């Protein structure tokens, strides 16, 4: 089983997640999402697996800086997905997906552990 991690190498939380994956001997692939941004469709799949809305995975400061000023309501869901795809820096990180589909925003040890255990 493998894990995919969307990361920004300059992010300390991303570096911590990679260190945890390495320490666990996990099989994983890295997607540098700033160099290889997800499409709106890929983001839709990820937020669905997370059980969240697109605005829930937006980094507030970076979203403001990118000019993303959309209502947080279902009618704006597609616009959020497209805006985040255009401004990937505004997406929370790291996002990890286990091969069984379990997806988490790995900003804390508990979330990281859930994916590593399922790897």
UniProtKB/TrEMBL annotation:
Database matches in Gene3D superfamilies: Glutaredoxin (3.40.30.10)
Ranges annotated as spanning the membrane: none
PANTHER family according to UniProt: ARSENATE REDUCTASE
Family: Belongs to the ArsC family.
Protein name stated in the entry: ArsC/Spx/MgsR family protein
The species this protein was found in: Nocardioides abyssi
């Amino acid at each position: 089983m493998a894990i995919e991690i969307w990361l920004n190498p300059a992010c300390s939380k991303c570096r911590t997640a990679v260190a945890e994956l390495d320490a666990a001997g996990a099989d994983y692939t890295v997607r540098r999402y700033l160099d290889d941004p997800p499409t709106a469709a890929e983001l839709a799949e990820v937020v669905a697996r997370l059980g969240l809305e697109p605005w829930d995975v937006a980094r507030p400061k970076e979203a403001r800086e990118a000019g993303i000023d959309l209502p947080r309501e279902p009618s704006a869901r597609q616009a959020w997905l497209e805006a985040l795809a255009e401004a990937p820096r505004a997406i929370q990180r790291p996002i990890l997906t286990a091969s069984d589909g379990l997806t988490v925003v790995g900003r804390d040890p508990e979330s990281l552990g859930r994916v590593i255990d399922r790897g």
